[in-house]
Design brief:
The protein has helices at 2-17, 25-32, 38-51, 54-82, 111-127, 139-150, 156-185. With 186 residues, the protein is an all-alpha fold. The model has no long low-confidence stretch (mean pLDDT 93).
């Protein structure tokens, strides 16, 4: 079963990665760069402060940062424990894909997918009752996560698990806030 999943993962990566067109390499390289998204991070926190009283916004910002921190710790422990080579570093596959980035650390699970989905999910949960269009923010993690396949540094399973982990932590911290913290600050 695991072998079949890993084979599907490799074949799907090869297929998706090879859909890439050289003319779009610059776009996807920019999308995959974390600094490209700094203005969006700023917008997230500005919206928290604009749509909530100061104390509540501060606590929600802290919860968002705690979510992000726990995701990063979990991701790093998992990467070191699983030690799955990135496709760009795997000699069995790296000649069959287009590689635009060359990170040397491990692949499973995607930190880009987990942090972007986690950060977006908790912000959306905090703002969904105050901003109807806030769900559009999920375009960011979808693009961000797909860019990792496009540039040849993650397998699809890395992305799927990363997104799931990010969403799970966002839901857990949102529930912690809603059930434990919010009743005490109101």
């Amino acid at each position: 079963m695991l072998d079949a999943l890993l084979e599907w993962d490799r074949q799907t990566l090869i297929y998706l990665n090879n859909l890439g067109i050289e003319q779009y390499d610059g776009f996807w390289s920019a999308v995959t760069n974390i600094t490209t998204w700094i203005p969006l991070y700023i917008i997230f926190f500005v919206l928290l402060y604009l749509k909530h009283p100061k104390k509540e916004a501060f606590i929600k910002a802290l919860m968002t940062l705690f979510t992000l921190g726990l995701i990063l710790v979990t991701m790093q422990i998992t990467k070191e424990s699983v030690a799955r080579l990135r496709p760009n570093n795997d000699v069995e596959i790296n000649t069959m894909i287009r590689i635009l980035k060359h990170p040397a650390n491990y692949s499973f699970f995607s930190g880009h997918a987990s942090t972007s989905f986690g950060l977006t999910a908790i912000i959306v949960l905090f703002l969904r009752k105050r901003i109807k269009w806030v769900w559009i923010f999920f375009i960011w993690p979808a693009l961000f996560a797909f860019s990792r396949i496009y540039v040849g540094v993650h397998y699809p399973v890395d992305i799927i698990v990363g997104a799931f982990v990010g969403l799970l932590y966002a839901l857990l911290f949102y529930q912690l806030y809603s059930q434990v913290i919010a009743p005490k600050i109101q």
